[in-house]
Write a structure and sequence with these properties.
Elements: H1 15-24, H2 27-32, E1 49-53, H3 63-80, E2 87-92, H4 99-109, E3 115-120, E4 126-127, E5 140-147, E6 162-169, H5 172-180, E7 187-201, E8 207-221, E9 227-232, H6 240-243, H7 249-254, E10 262-265, H8 269-274, E11 291-297, H9 302-313, E12 320-325, H10 329-333, H11 340-343, E13 356-362, H12 366-377, E14 384-389, H13 397-406, E15 415-418
């Protein structure tokens, strides 16, 4: 491409601009830039961030042919590559366990790789080769659908700050040793783990996300933890493992996280936290906790209600509370401990910073309404309480609205918004 004076704009681009252009292109197109001019030829071979996926090659109806072509493309690219490789991403449906992947990882371990993402196949688990654990300069590691079995001499990734493991087959003691062997770890995601009892020791951990069928979770040493998100996938007929937990789950999970700023508890979280809970225990104060999100809280279970109360009363700077209910309307309406709100509920407490409350899937059963009454009565700066009724609540909606509007409000500017069904 030339301008009006005949100057070749493409050829004369500054080196820094060429590098930026190449990093923005899919890797297949980056390779094709060699035809632009002699100055562009093999510039792609110095890229430090490589992303290989199924779009790198033309796809055939024959899966084996596509797989072979993809392997050949990646192997040739790495063979011609010059200089360091800082980030390597392999995300492909076509490749399963392959000796070629092992060779690529061995190559990367000698290139000072810092960020590695592996998402291979969808039918069988990829077994991570031992050379993966020789990538000691890693700062970020993401593994999906793989088997992880470090060699006995492996002592951890001393530089790792970000670890994301999804659908990874690994022994419980291995995952715990891996976490504790990463002293700089700041972000940890564990997704789709089955029957895992987990103890976390991570002095610099700030962000934690857990999803799966966890039997037990103990945050033994996580003093800097800022954000926690937990989803416990469990069917109603398989909640017995929760009962097998020893001690107070609330203390084991949140007893040592003084820096917590955001807490998200998905399905079964409050049920798990209620195991071993004792009313009257002196809780840790979460001075930095400003947002609590709790999903599918059972308001027919008094222990779960106590967990919610303990959380909000231990968070003096809480600004926003989001709760979805999963109450069984029949069971909750027949509750026999409604006198709790008059006789045993903490008094003289003030949620002095709570401004926003969002309640969804409300059934209008007694304990739910008493909880809302408690919030309105003890939140002097509350601005908005939005209420979304459950899909099975129909004839009782008007009664819920009337009852809510009758509750005394500590905040003169508190607005109650009743959200209609969204079509």
């Amino acid at each position: 491409m030339a301008n009006s004076s005949g100057q070749d704009i493409i050829t004369d681009l500054p080196q820094s601009i060429i590098e930026i252009i190449l990093t923005k292109l899919p890797i297949r197109d980056a390779v094709r830039t060699s035809i632009l001019s002699s100055r562009w030829r093999y510039k792609w071979a110095t890229l430090t961030q490589l992303v290989f996926d199924d779009n790198c090659v033309s796809q055939f109806n024959d899966r084996t042919a596509t797989e072979n072509k993809l392997v050949k493309f990646i192997t040739r690219f790495l063979f011609l590559h010059e200089g360091p490789i800082h980030k390597f991403t392999l995300s492909t449906y076509y490749l399963q366990s392959s000796p070629d992947i092992d060779q690529w990882l061995l190559f990367l371990s000698r290139k000072g790789i810092k960020e590695l993402v592996l998402e291979v196949g969808d039918e069988e688990w990829f077994r991570a080769p031992s050379c993966l654990f020789a990538c000691l300069k890693l700062t970020s590691l993401e593994l999906l659908r793989c088997e992880l079995d470090p060699p006995p001499e492996f002592r951890g990734f001393s530089c790792l700050k970000y670890l994301n493991l999804q659908q990874v087959l690994v022994a419980p003691e291995v995952i715990e040793n891996l976490i504790s062997g990463c002293p700089l770890l700041e972000s940890l995601t564990l997704s789709y783990f089955d029957s895992l009892a987990l103890t976390v020791r991570a002095p610099n951990l700030k962000y934690l996300k857990l999803e799966g069928e966890f039997k037990d979770i103990c945050l033994e040493y996580t003093p800097l933890l800022v954000v926690v998100s937990v989803a416990m996938y469990m069917t109603d007929d398989k909640t017995e493992p929760f009962e097998q937990s020893s001690g107070c789950n609330f203390d084991k999970f949140l007893g040592g996280v003084p820096c917590l700023e955001k807490l998200t508890g998905q399905i079964y979280f409050t049920k798990y936290m209620s195991i071993g809970y004792e009313l009257g225990k002196v809780p840790l104060t979460y001075d930095r906790l400003k947002l609590i999100q709790l999903y599918q809280v059972s308001f027919e279970d008094m222990k779960e209600i106590l967990v919610v109360l303990r959380l909000i009363l231990s968070s003096p700077n809480l600004q926003e509370l989001q709760i979805s209910s999963s109450s069984n309307a029949i069971a909750a309406s027949e509750a026999t401990d409604l006198n709790f709100w008059e006789t045993d509920c903490p008094t003289g407490c003030t949620l002095k910073n709570l401004k926003t409350v969002k309640i969804s899937d409300l059934s209008g059963v007694p304990h739910e309404m008493e909880f809302l009454k408690f919030l309105l009565k003890n939140s002097p700066v509350l601005e908005v309480m939005s209420v979304l009724p459950g899909i099975y609540v129909s004839c009782g909606k008007l009664n819920v609205v009337i009852e809510l509007l009758r509750f005394r409000r500590a905040s003169a500017k508190a607005e109650i918004i009743f959200i209609q069904d969204q079509v």
